[in-house]
Amino acid sequence: MIHLTTLARHARLAAIALSLAGALAVPAQADEVADCAALIASPFEAGYKATGINPREADRVAAEEVCNAAIVAHPDSMEARTWLARIHFYYGEYPQVVDLVEPAAAAGNPLAQQMLADILIDGLGGIPVDEPRAIELLEASSDAGFAPGQNSLGVSYERGQGVPQDDAQAAKLYASAAKQGLAVAEVNLGMFYADGIGVPEDDVRATKLFMSAAEKGDAGGMNSLAVSYEIGEGIEQDYALALDWYQKASEAGSVIAGANIGNLYIQGLGVEQDYAEALTWIRKAAKDGNSYGQYLLGSMYEEGQGVTADIDKAIEFYTQAADGGSSDAEDALVRLGQ
Fold first, then answer.
1. Contact 147/175 with Cβ under 8 angstroms?
2. Does the 274-338 domain belong in CATH 1.25.40.10?
Protein backbone atom coordinates (compact mmCIF):
# COMPACT_ATOMS: atom_id res chain seq x y z
CA MET A 1 0.00 0.00 0.00
CA ILE A 2 1.24 3.49 -0.75
CA HIS A 3 2.07 6.44 1.45
CA LEU A 4 -1.58 7.37 2.01
CA THR A 5 -1.93 4.81 4.83
CA THR A 6 1.50 5.02 6.41
CA LEU A 7 0.47 7.10 9.43
CA ALA A 8 -2.27 4.89 10.81
CA ARG A 9 -0.22 2.16 12.45
CA HIS A 10 1.99 4.76 14.17
CA ALA A 11 -0.92 6.62 15.71
CA ARG A 12 -0.67 4.84 19.03
CA LEU A 13 -2.31 7.72 20.90
CA ALA A 14 -5.26 8.25 18.60
CA ALA A 15 -5.84 4.55 18.25
CA ILE A 16 -5.77 3.84 21.94
CA ALA A 17 -7.94 6.83 22.71
CA LEU A 18 -10.62 5.37 20.46
CA SER A 19 -10.39 1.82 21.74
CA LEU A 20 -9.35 1.77 25.38
CA ALA A 21 -10.70 -1.29 27.12
CA GLY A 22 -10.00 -3.81 29.85
CA ALA A 23 -9.76 -7.60 29.82
CA LEU A 24 -11.04 -7.90 33.34
CA ALA A 25 -13.43 -10.42 34.77
CA VAL A 26 -16.46 -8.63 36.15
CA PRO A 27 -16.83 -9.18 39.91
CA ALA A 28 -19.95 -8.61 41.93
CA GLN A 29 -20.02 -4.84 42.19
CA ALA A 30 -21.55 -2.23 44.43
CA ASP A 31 -24.17 -0.11 42.72
CA GLU A 32 -21.88 2.94 42.46
CA VAL A 33 -19.17 1.00 40.65
CA ALA A 34 -21.71 -0.68 38.40
CA ASP A 35 -23.16 2.74 37.55
CA CYS A 36 -19.66 3.93 36.61
CA ALA A 37 -19.19 0.89 34.40
CA ALA A 38 -22.48 1.56 32.65
CA LEU A 39 -21.24 4.98 31.55
CA ILE A 40 -17.68 4.26 30.43
CA ALA A 41 -16.94 0.52 30.34
CA SER A 42 -15.75 -0.68 26.95
CA PRO A 43 -17.22 -3.47 24.82
CA PHE A 44 -13.77 -5.08 24.89
CA GLU A 45 -14.03 -5.72 28.61
CA ALA A 46 -15.19 -9.11 29.75
CA GLY A 47 -18.86 -8.88 30.58
CA TYR A 48 -19.41 -5.57 28.75
CA LYS A 49 -19.39 -6.67 25.12
CA ALA A 50 -23.05 -5.83 24.67
CA THR A 51 -23.20 -2.68 26.81
CA GLY A 52 -19.78 -1.06 26.61
CA ILE A 53 -19.28 2.16 24.68
CA ASN A 54 -16.56 4.10 22.93
CA PRO A 55 -15.16 7.04 24.94
CA ARG A 56 -16.06 9.47 22.16
CA GLU A 57 -19.71 8.49 22.61
CA ALA A 58 -19.70 8.73 26.40
CA ASP A 59 -21.32 11.52 28.40
CA ARG A 60 -18.15 12.90 29.97
CA VAL A 61 -19.85 15.04 32.61
CA ALA A 62 -22.09 12.23 33.82
CA ALA A 63 -19.32 9.62 33.68
CA GLU A 64 -16.90 11.75 35.70
CA GLU A 65 -19.53 12.57 38.30
CA VAL A 66 -20.65 8.97 38.75
CA CYS A 67 -17.16 7.44 38.64
CA ASN A 68 -15.80 9.97 41.14
CA ALA A 69 -18.71 9.13 43.43
CA ALA A 70 -17.89 5.43 43.01
CA ILE A 71 -14.28 6.05 44.04
CA VAL A 72 -15.40 8.03 47.10
CA ALA A 73 -17.76 5.24 48.10
CA HIS A 74 -15.31 2.47 47.23
CA PRO A 75 -11.75 3.88 47.37
CA ASP A 76 -10.25 0.42 46.85
CA SER A 77 -12.08 -0.16 43.56
CA MET A 78 -9.38 -0.45 40.93
CA GLU A 79 -12.06 -0.75 38.26
CA ALA A 80 -13.66 2.59 39.10
CA ARG A 81 -10.26 4.30 39.17
CA THR A 82 -9.35 2.83 35.81
CA TRP A 83 -12.66 3.72 34.15
CA LEU A 84 -12.32 7.30 35.35
CA ALA A 85 -8.77 7.33 34.00
CA ARG A 86 -10.10 6.09 30.67
CA ILE A 87 -12.06 9.34 30.33
CA HIS A 88 -9.01 11.47 31.15
CA PHE A 89 -6.86 9.48 28.71
CA TYR A 90 -9.30 10.08 25.88
CA TYR A 91 -9.11 13.83 26.50
CA GLY A 92 -5.32 13.85 26.78
CA GLU A 93 -5.19 14.60 30.53
CA TYR A 94 -2.26 12.31 31.21
CA PRO A 95 -1.08 13.44 34.67
CA GLN A 96 -4.56 12.69 36.01
CA VAL A 97 -4.40 9.28 34.35
CA VAL A 98 -1.10 8.44 36.04
CA ASP A 99 -2.42 9.40 39.47
CA LEU A 100 -5.44 7.17 39.00
CA VAL A 101 -3.88 4.10 37.39
CA GLU A 102 -0.61 3.66 39.28
CA PRO A 103 -2.22 1.53 42.02
CA ALA A 104 -4.47 -0.26 39.54
CA ALA A 105 -1.52 -1.13 37.31
CA ALA A 106 0.39 -2.44 40.32
CA ALA A 107 -2.65 -4.54 41.20
CA GLY A 108 -2.56 -6.15 37.74
CA ASN A 109 -5.36 -4.31 35.96
CA PRO A 110 -4.57 -4.81 32.22
CA LEU A 111 -6.30 -1.59 31.13
CA ALA A 112 -4.42 0.43 33.72
CA GLN A 113 -1.17 -1.23 32.66
CA GLN A 114 -1.78 -0.41 29.00
CA MET A 115 -2.70 3.23 29.59
CA LEU A 116 0.23 3.84 31.92
CA ALA A 117 2.60 2.11 29.49
CA ASP A 118 1.45 4.23 26.54
CA ILE A 119 2.08 7.35 28.57
CA LEU A 120 5.51 6.23 29.74
CA ILE A 121 6.79 4.95 26.40
CA ASP A 122 6.04 8.20 24.56
CA GLY A 123 6.36 10.65 27.46
CA LEU A 124 2.81 11.90 26.95
CA GLY A 125 1.79 15.01 28.83
CA GLY A 126 5.37 15.74 29.85
CA ILE A 127 5.60 12.53 31.90
CA PRO A 128 9.22 11.27 31.85
CA VAL A 129 9.83 8.50 29.33
CA ASP A 130 10.46 5.08 30.88
CA GLU A 131 10.64 2.50 28.11
CA PRO A 132 11.74 -0.49 30.24
CA ARG A 133 8.82 -0.07 32.63
CA ALA A 134 6.43 0.59 29.76
CA ILE A 135 7.41 -2.66 28.05
CA GLU A 136 7.08 -4.58 31.30
CA LEU A 137 3.56 -3.21 31.71
CA LEU A 138 2.60 -3.89 28.10
CA GLU A 139 3.87 -7.45 28.30
CA ALA A 140 1.73 -8.04 31.39
CA SER A 141 -1.30 -6.47 29.72
CA SER A 142 -0.73 -8.44 26.52
CA ASP A 143 -0.18 -11.71 28.38
CA ALA A 144 -3.56 -11.15 30.03
CA GLY A 145 -5.09 -11.27 26.55
CA PHE A 146 -6.00 -7.59 26.56
CA ALA A 147 -6.36 -6.46 22.93
CA PRO A 148 -5.25 -2.82 23.29
CA GLY A 149 -2.23 -3.99 25.28
CA GLN A 150 -1.37 -6.43 22.51
CA ASN A 151 -1.73 -3.70 19.90
CA SER A 152 0.47 -1.25 21.82
CA LEU A 153 3.13 -3.90 22.31
CA GLY A 154 2.91 -4.59 18.59
CA VAL A 155 3.55 -0.90 17.89
CA SER A 156 6.63 -1.09 20.10
CA TYR A 157 7.99 -4.07 18.15
CA GLU A 158 7.22 -2.36 14.85
CA ARG A 159 9.04 0.80 15.95
CA GLY A 160 11.79 -0.98 17.87
CA GLN A 161 10.79 1.13 20.85
CA GLY A 162 11.94 -0.43 24.12
CA VAL A 163 12.32 -3.81 22.38
CA PRO A 164 14.33 -5.04 19.37
CA GLN A 165 12.57 -4.12 16.12
CA ASP A 166 10.67 -7.20 14.95
CA ASP A 167 7.96 -6.95 12.28
CA ALA A 168 7.00 -10.61 12.57
CA GLN A 169 6.37 -10.27 16.30
CA ALA A 170 4.46 -7.05 15.71
CA ALA A 171 2.28 -8.84 13.16
CA LYS A 172 1.51 -11.64 15.63
CA LEU A 173 0.46 -9.16 18.29
CA TYR A 174 -1.65 -7.16 15.85
CA ALA A 175 -3.30 -10.40 14.73
CA SER A 176 -4.15 -11.38 18.31
CA ALA A 177 -5.76 -7.99 18.94
CA ALA A 178 -7.50 -7.92 15.55
CA LYS A 179 -9.00 -11.34 16.23
CA GLN A 180 -10.77 -9.74 19.19
CA GLY A 181 -12.18 -7.05 16.91
CA LEU A 182 -9.95 -4.14 17.90
CA ALA A 183 -10.28 -1.76 14.95
CA VAL A 184 -6.88 -0.11 15.19
CA ALA A 185 -5.21 -3.53 15.27
CA GLU A 186 -7.17 -4.51 12.16
CA VAL A 187 -5.81 -1.43 10.40
CA ASN A 188 -2.26 -2.08 11.60
CA LEU A 189 -2.39 -5.72 10.50
CA GLY A 190 -4.04 -4.75 7.22
CA MET A 191 -1.22 -2.35 6.45
CA PHE A 192 1.29 -5.12 7.12
CA TYR A 193 -0.53 -7.37 4.63
CA ALA A 194 -0.79 -4.52 2.11
CA ASP A 195 2.96 -3.90 2.25
CA GLY A 196 4.13 -7.46 2.95
CA ILE A 197 5.66 -6.45 6.28
CA GLY A 198 6.12 -9.32 8.74
CA VAL A 199 3.58 -11.36 6.73
CA PRO A 200 3.19 -12.34 3.06
CA GLU A 201 1.69 -9.56 0.93
CA ASP A 202 -2.05 -10.09 0.54
CA ASP A 203 -4.07 -7.12 -0.71
CA VAL A 204 -7.40 -8.94 -0.46
CA ARG A 205 -6.86 -9.80 3.19
CA ALA A 206 -5.63 -6.28 3.87
CA THR A 207 -8.75 -4.74 2.39
CA LYS A 208 -11.03 -7.06 4.36
CA LEU A 209 -9.32 -5.91 7.55
CA PHE A 210 -9.68 -2.26 6.53
CA MET A 211 -13.36 -2.80 5.76
CA SER A 212 -13.96 -4.42 9.15
CA ALA A 213 -12.33 -1.47 10.92
CA ALA A 214 -14.16 1.05 8.74
CA GLU A 215 -17.52 -0.53 9.50
CA LYS A 216 -16.74 -0.08 13.20
CA GLY A 217 -16.36 3.66 12.61
CA ASP A 218 -12.56 3.75 12.80
CA ALA A 219 -11.20 6.77 10.90
CA GLY A 220 -7.95 5.03 9.95
CA GLY A 221 -9.87 2.04 8.66
CA MET A 222 -12.11 4.28 6.58
CA ASN A 223 -9.14 6.08 5.06
CA SER A 224 -7.30 2.84 4.33
CA LEU A 225 -10.38 1.30 2.74
CA ALA A 226 -10.74 4.41 0.58
CA VAL A 227 -7.13 3.97 -0.56
CA SER A 228 -7.92 0.39 -1.57
CA TYR A 229 -10.86 1.59 -3.66
CA GLU A 230 -8.80 4.39 -5.19
CA ILE A 231 -5.90 2.24 -6.34
CA GLY A 232 -7.87 -0.98 -6.86
CA GLU A 233 -5.78 -3.20 -4.63
CA GLY A 234 -7.62 -6.04 -2.94
CA ILE A 235 -10.92 -4.78 -4.31
CA GLU A 236 -12.33 -3.46 -7.60
CA GLN A 237 -11.26 0.13 -8.27
CA ASP A 238 -14.09 2.56 -7.59
CA TYR A 239 -13.35 6.28 -7.30
CA ALA A 240 -16.87 7.13 -6.14
CA LEU A 241 -16.58 4.75 -3.19
CA ALA A 242 -13.06 6.01 -2.51
CA LEU A 243 -14.38 9.57 -2.25
CA ASP A 244 -17.28 8.42 -0.06
CA TRP A 245 -15.00 6.65 2.40
CA TYR A 246 -12.48 9.51 2.41
CA GLN A 247 -15.30 11.88 3.32
CA LYS A 248 -16.47 9.59 6.11
CA ALA A 249 -12.89 9.29 7.39
CA SER A 250 -12.47 13.07 7.34
CA GLU A 251 -15.70 13.52 9.27
CA ALA A 252 -14.43 10.95 11.80
CA GLY A 253 -11.25 12.96 12.34
CA SER A 254 -8.73 11.66 9.80
CA VAL A 255 -6.56 14.56 8.62
CA ILE A 256 -4.87 12.61 5.84
CA ALA A 257 -8.27 11.72 4.39
CA GLY A 258 -8.80 15.40 3.62
CA ALA A 259 -5.50 15.51 1.76
CA ASN A 260 -6.54 12.40 -0.17
CA ILE A 261 -9.82 14.07 -1.18
CA GLY A 262 -7.81 17.03 -2.41
CA ASN A 263 -5.65 14.72 -4.49
CA LEU A 264 -8.74 13.25 -6.17
CA TYR A 265 -9.74 16.77 -7.22
CA ILE A 266 -6.22 17.55 -8.46
CA GLN A 267 -6.17 14.39 -10.58
CA GLY A 268 -9.84 14.49 -11.57
CA LEU A 269 -10.33 10.93 -10.33
CA GLY A 270 -14.03 10.16 -10.04
CA VAL A 271 -14.73 13.89 -9.84
CA GLU A 272 -14.35 16.83 -12.18
CA GLN A 273 -10.87 18.27 -11.90
CA ASP A 274 -11.18 21.27 -9.60
CA TYR A 275 -8.06 22.96 -8.25
CA ALA A 276 -10.04 25.36 -6.07
CA GLU A 277 -11.82 22.50 -4.32
CA ALA A 278 -8.55 20.60 -4.04
CA LEU A 279 -6.88 23.63 -2.48
CA THR A 280 -9.58 23.92 0.18
CA TRP A 281 -9.02 20.35 1.35
CA ILE A 282 -5.25 20.36 1.03
CA ARG A 283 -4.70 23.67 2.79
CA LYS A 284 -6.66 22.39 5.78
CA ALA A 285 -4.66 19.16 5.93
CA ALA A 286 -1.38 21.08 5.63
CA LYS A 287 -2.45 23.52 8.33
CA ASP A 288 -3.25 20.56 10.59
CA GLY A 289 0.33 19.35 10.14
CA ASN A 290 -0.25 16.48 7.74
CA SER A 291 2.91 15.87 5.72
CA TYR A 292 1.06 14.54 2.68
CA GLY A 293 -1.12 17.65 2.62
CA GLN A 294 2.00 19.81 2.93
CA TYR A 295 3.63 17.94 0.05
CA LEU A 296 0.55 18.35 -2.15
CA LEU A 297 0.36 22.06 -1.32
CA GLY A 298 4.01 22.44 -2.25
CA SER A 299 3.31 20.68 -5.53
CA MET A 300 0.38 22.99 -6.30
CA TYR A 301 2.59 26.04 -5.74
CA GLU A 302 5.34 24.55 -7.87
CA GLU A 303 2.95 23.75 -10.73
CA GLY A 304 0.70 26.79 -10.33
CA GLN A 305 -2.40 24.65 -9.83
CA GLY A 306 -5.16 26.85 -8.42
CA VAL A 307 -2.54 29.32 -7.16
CA THR A 308 0.07 31.57 -8.69
CA ALA A 309 3.23 29.52 -9.20
CA ASP A 310 5.68 30.31 -6.42
CA ILE A 311 8.82 28.21 -6.03
CA ASP A 312 9.70 29.78 -2.68
CA LYS A 313 6.33 28.76 -1.26
CA ALA A 314 6.70 25.33 -2.84
CA ILE A 315 10.05 24.89 -1.10
CA GLU A 316 8.53 26.09 2.17
CA PHE A 317 5.79 23.45 2.11
CA TYR A 318 8.08 20.73 0.77
CA THR A 319 10.41 21.44 3.67
CA GLN A 320 7.58 21.14 6.18
CA ALA A 321 6.51 17.87 4.59
CA ALA A 322 10.06 16.50 4.56
CA ASP A 323 10.43 17.37 8.23
CA GLY A 324 7.28 15.33 8.78
CA GLY A 325 8.77 12.31 7.06
CA SER A 326 7.60 12.68 3.44
CA SER A 327 10.11 11.02 1.10
CA ASP A 328 8.28 12.54 -1.89
CA ALA A 329 8.93 16.00 -0.44
CA GLU A 330 12.58 15.14 0.11
CA ASP A 331 12.86 14.12 -3.55
CA ALA A 332 11.17 17.37 -4.62
CA LEU A 333 13.64 19.43 -2.60
CA VAL A 334 16.57 17.60 -4.19
CA ARG A 335 15.07 18.20 -7.62
CA LEU A 336 14.79 21.91 -6.80
CA GLY A 337 18.39 22.04 -5.65
CA GLN A 338 17.63 22.28 -1.95
1. no
2. yes
